[in-house]
Amino acid sequence: MTEDGDMLGWDESVFRDEHVLEIDYVPETFHHRDSQMESLKYALRPAVRGSRPLNVIARGPPGTGKTTAVQKLFGELRAETDVLVARVNCQVDATRYAVFSSLFEAVFDYEPPASGISFRELFEQITDHLVEEDAVLAVALDDVNYLAYENEISETLYSLLRAHESQTGARIGVIVISSDTDLELLDAVDERVQSVFRPEEVFFPPYDQPEIVDILDERVERGFQPDAVGPTVLDRVAELTADHDGDLRMGIDLLRRAGLNAEMAGRRTVASEDVDAAYETAKHVQLSRDVNALSDTERDLLGVIASEGGGHAGDVFEAFNDQTGLAYTRYAEVLNKLERVGLIDTQYTSVEGRGRTRMIELAYDADAVAERL
Ligand SMILES: Nc1ncnc2c1ncn2[C@@H]1O[C@H](COP(=O)(O)OP(=O)(O)OP(=O)(O)O)[C@@H](O)[C@H]1O
């Protein structure tokens, strides 16, 4: 039943297709990334001819289309060629073993046996299969920075890049995708890897505001009812997204949350205030993502830092040790990990009476962190 005026009826929605605004949606069109797509195609083309593809480092800040570019190209390869493709999410699979388990699943279409099969066996089954089938495998290590944080990147790349030496005829190419622009990947890997890893570099710069408007406009058309989102609202979303380092994930999330806010108020059209209210929650999407990826011990330490409000590393250690009983070495490792993923900042300062001491600061508002733990 439709009600009069601007109010939504119970059976109505501001959305036409809400799925278009979900995180795993792969967009039909992919504008403003032509040169990056060309470079990736150039690197992957040898695979189509049965040769080893060129290796690639795809770099750029979060939400700049790196994953989408690879998903699109891998989708085309899967549909139109015999090349085997596998994208591994290293935020989830952050060890060499987990990466190869995921590759096993992509190659065989079923999971490796759960009852502890050794890395060597995993590796051999995958490479044997490639040789038997005369197949080329293109691997994308997405969010590879997480392998670096766990000190697993050298072993993983080494195994992939030298696969053809231990198993003649195994052809594997690797696209590593990193969203940590401070991390120099080539410095993070050891010399054995550096000597075989000579990747093509593909850079994904942040989208500027007109590009953001253009991309989001298409989502609005597909995702919302006609006229539900006007140009002023779209501009506001694009402005906030551009301020957030052009992270499109933020823009898409804002649109969806603003739409839900309008619905909650029973309105047919989204207003700028819906966007501003949505921003208060959406600005923490990266924080939520990072906290979700932490281990229990890492969460414990983050919790201690949030409740202490940061401070001297020694004091934070005491509180952490009281809670977990863990020793200083482990504490220092976890502290470094939290800093590498960008949840805290630390810096050495000279404090009277204490000499040089490491000061810890949360990178986010303490309440926002505590809510997500
Ligand atoms: N040019 C584009 N056109 C349409 N949608 C896009 C475009 N670029 C990115 N997106 C959308 O923005 C969101 C983030 O993109 P994507 O996951 O590809 O970024 P990313 O660079 O891999 O991010 P991260 O480094 O954080 O993993 C996705 O929902 C994707 O669909």
UniProtKB/TrEMBL annotation:
Record domain AAA+ ATPase: where: 52-201
Domain of life: Archaea
BP GO terms, sorted: cell division; DNA replication
InterPro entries: AAA+_ATPase, AAA_22, Cdc6_C, Cdc6_lid, ORC1/CDC6, Orc1/Cdc6_arc, P-loop_NTPase, WH-like_DNA-bd_sf
Annotated residues for binding of ATP: 64-68, 207, 219
SMART domains (alphabetical): AAA, Cdc6_C
Pfam families: AAA_22, Cdc6_lid
Entry keyword annotation includes Secreted: no
Cdc6 C-terminal domain boundaries: 301-373
Keywords carried by this UniProt record: ATP-binding, Cell cycle, Cell division, DNA replication, Nucleotide-binding
A GO molecular function held by the record: ATP binding
NCBIfam families: orc1/cdc6 family replication initiation protein, PRK00411.1-2, PRK00411.1-5
Family: Belongs to the CDC6/cdc18 family.
Function: Involved in regulation of DNA replication.
Protein name: ORC1-type DNA replication protein
Organism expressing this protein natively: Halococcoides cellulosivorans
Encoding gene per record: cdc6
